[in-house]
Hints:
Elements: H1 2-20, H2 22-25, H3 46-49, E1 52-55, E2 62-64, E3 68-72, E4 76-78, E5 84-86, E6 91-94, E7 99-102, E8 110-114, E9 120-130, E10 134-135, E11 143-144, E12 150-154, E13 161-173, E14 178-179, E15 185-188, E16 191-195, E17 200-206, E18 209-213, E19 218-225, E20 228-231, E21 239-245, E22 248-251, E23 261-267, E24 270-273, E25 279-285, E26 288-291, E27 297-304, E28 307-310, E29 317-323, E30 326-329, H4 344-354, H5 366-371, H6 381-386, H7 393-398, E31 404-407, E32 426-429, E33 437-440, H8 443-453
Parallel strand pairs: 1-3, 2-5, 3-6, 4-7, 5-8, 6-9, 7-9, 8-12, 9-13, 13-15, 13-16, 14-17, 15-17, 16-18, 17-19, 18-20, 19-21, 20-22, 21-23, 22-24, 23-25, 24-26, 25-27, 26-28, 27-29, 28-30, 31-32
Antiparallel strand pairs: 10-11, 32-33
Amino acid sequence: MKTKYRRLFIALALLALATLNSQLSTVFAQGSLTPPGVPGPTMKSLDQIEARTAITNTSTLVTITQSGSYYLTHNITVTAGDAIDITTNGVTLDLNGFTLTSTEASPTGTGILLLGNGISDITIRNGHIRGGVTLSGPFSTVYTGSGFANGIALSVANASANVLVSGVSVMGCLVDGINLGNSATTVESCKVYTVGNYGIVANNIYNSSSDQFGNQGIFAFVIANNCSANTDSGTGNALQAQTAINCTGINNSTVGNAGGVDAYAAINCFGESYGSVGVAAYTANNCYGNSLFNTGLAASQTATGCYGIAYIYGSGLSAVTANNCYGATKSKPKPAELDCMPPRRMAAMELAKLELDCLPPRRITAMELADTLEIPAPATACMRARLPPDLSASRMAAARGCGVTISPSAAMASAPPASASGPISSTVALAPALRPTITITNTTCRKEWMRHLEYKT
């Protein structure tokens, strides 16, 4: 009985203390479940992370006059002039995957123009610039069409500093693709295709390519690393840099100083040229160069671990000091630019592929057979195998109008020969001993070939 009253007394005493002290009441309750107010935001807004301004224009010029970060929300198509002008420093422009396009019939504008002297601290990234300029034909140097004159350019040459262009593709411009000059400028992961002058110009160019350009594809004042340039219409070197690393330059144009790779230091590079040097450098390491009518690889000082080849005329490899290198000239006819000779490009390409090593030391080729008077050529099994019917005298001569009619022997060819008609009437007749005789009535062609080949009529 005493115990029961004792427990009741203790309970009443604790209840009295809880009434006097609110802190003791929490021993028995968790407080009010009603929130003290409306919950506030717990995450940062996009503007707090990176304050950016949306560009909503779709058909008019955008002019950026204030520093900051900007991004496109739509494609922009203009009918004349520029698409975007940047007139101040400290701008980041995110194309956001959209495209700037121009339909101007006679291109004068620029996709993105850094307008003013001394524009600096600019970043342009992630988008496309497109025009309608095209090359008029294979091996042509004429670019025509509508669109922009330039993709990304400066209004004052070499006047902008600390400029970065990343992840941008440019196509179909009448003049330059991306030209940033040489004041602390960098281009990375960009592509340029079909421009009438320069593809990409900057101090440093990384992981970028330029194809089909009228002058030079990659021009790096300091470093070009993992870049490529390829054209058959360029009048200058395909790729040029102070230091070229892991780069490729191919220029098969027949005009101008159309070299492949030109650098002070070339490392792990490949260069190809039609009439100039494949790879030209002060020092070349682990490089490969080839040329049809010039030097494959030329090092004005040292070449190490390099390979050079001249397919038709010139030196395979040239250097003051060559270590562990190889150079070769596949064929070396006398240089003769004759009116009756087929275009050098067709002859060079096809003869290089044939590699007619089995011909006599005099190296009488199909080209010579097509334009020479009564030159006997021994038709051995080797020659028959390497000189198929599709590379016949008529085909080699047809491009310049030197028509040839061939009467083949079954032992000489297994397919019907090609034929062509032209101002020169010639006949190839196969004797039983398989010694073809070439007869040409054009005395100018005949005399020129007799002089160069030192044969007597």
